[in-house]
Amino acid sequence: MPDYSDSPETPAPHHEIRSAERRTARYGEWASPISAADVARGGLRLGFPSIVGDDVWWTEGRPAEGGRQVVVSAVRGDLLAPPWNARTRVHEYGGRSWLPLDETRFVFTEWTDQRLYLAEAGSDPTPITPVPSSPAALRYADFVRVTDELWCVRESHDSGRIHRDIVAIPLDGSAADDPSRIRSIVAGSDFLAYPTPNADGTRLAWIAWDHPRMPWDGTELRIATVRDGVAHGWTTVAGGATESVLQPMWTADGGLYFLSDRSGWWLPYRLDASGSIRPLVEREEEFGGPLWQLGMRFFAATQDGRLVVVHAGKLGILDPTSGDIVDLDIPANVVEPMLDAAEAYVCFIGAGPLLPPTLFRFDLRDHTCREIRRSVDVLPDVRYVPIPQRRVFQRTDGQPVHAVVYPPRNPDFSAPPEERPPYVVIAHGGPTSSSPPILRLEYAYFTSRGIGILDVDYGGSTGYGRAYRERLRGQWGVVDVEDCVAAAQSLVAAGEADGTRLAIRGASAGGWTVLCAVTRTNVFSAAVSYFGVAELVKFVTQTHDFESHYVEGLVGPLPQARDLYLERAPLSHVDDVCCPVLLIQGLEDPVVPPSQAEMFCEALAAKGIPHAYLAFEGEQHGLRRERNIVTALEAELSFYGQVFGVIPPGVPRLELSGLRRPPHHR
Fold first, then answer.
1. Cα–Cα distance between 361 and 57 in angstroms, integer?
2. Rounded to two decimals, what is the model's pTM?
């Protein structure tokens, strides 16, 4: 794991910083040049880069345009004019929503109707798929071109039933008015991913899995012969109920590369034409990750037969014969699984402690790395940016808890010598996810004001092997809470945080952890839940199909575990809420419906517990619109100020319902 202790930007421990030029002010009352508007404007979502000739294309989600996702060229600029929005709703989390066809044309899924369109320079996009029977009932993602067709995953919604298959769509547009022109290649599974034909299109490999499994629980790598454009006689060659397989790639001699966690870590393997399987490397580090979005690429092939791989966040060149890996000298410490390689180039998105997510093109000939696009146009002075510190804390039972600490940092201020800073503990979403140590303006917004961030990769997080990931199996709302508490209390015990001013914050599954933490412990003095889960019985019937059985692995199956669903739910323990709560919710969220926040809010109001509820029209699972991001961040800062007993300068006061007196500090 990267060690940032030698960084020239690393400050002394925050409570020891002293300077004659600095003013003394309480933690949380420091003035900062980083505004909520800066955070919102710096929230560009870069995704799925592709090398197109001598150019690089990618998608860019823009908060200033209401979250519109644009296809962009490094040479020509925007390739998709407003109001077109290249975003797919497959699995609701989406994924690869576009594919270049040549240097002037590409196909994309349009957000509003979910039809596929062909875009060409100088012309308006034209549809190549039919109008669905109901809005957004046909959705497409994860594309590959096969001669004059586009092969991809199609998700069909019909009267509450959902069907997925891999289909072939003619690129000539004939299917726009004639749905029969779309051919189903293979189906038969609840979920499919990575449609991967061989060079001549006579064989097809893909990944499949069924409820109640999630793709990190167990998937199957299947292969079939393609005759008359349809897959025949498929066989499973790797994977199963307890083995997660990802990203097949054909080799020139008829074999397959793929990723599998059969060893306890996602590693690259080769399936020979004879059927034998061997690992390309044997290490205790991750070469893969959770398939939250279709189209993720964890490795790519170079012209000379080597593989560009993402491993433990680094970017390297793997020799499949020897297993040797040469890491590339790049400015990033963390690389996202969205690689593309062509000719002599690799393009990727990377980030680091002082580097926001950035798109790069790496030249494999001279090993030069060219920056293409940053997610933040204008960075603040690095002296206001926290330097993340990887830490491993210990639970009372000796189990490790991985976390990243972002201490307060502001060159203009020092706190009184006897004061320790408040901290916000972050529980990431997923919960099968992780939060690597990179520059996040959202965190700097708080740390530059004197509020530290403790980002916890609790048990269940990815990046630490399957055993760590499966610590959460059956224990959601228990292990995640215990790990967040253990990390926070360790920071307090070390004298780095004020134990009376600890907040906890999380989004989605992280919001569940937040609400569980404040109904089951008295460690935290403030709680912020962004579109968090509050109960389980209704949730599993109202959430989207992709995660509709997820809770079975996290808590237990229904109906056997119904009593446990009720007992584990924060909504069942509102009487035990230990602190004020801020709830933030998008009103068009298909993943965590607004009813979850509304039920919890109503229960808080009935009990007279201090709280606030901010609901945003037009937002789905996550805030994408600039004005809403600003509103939410400023409200959150005001909320912390009121609970911590400080007055953050420059933000409007959030009104809390049920706050009859200032919250006391325990």
1. 11
2. 0.91
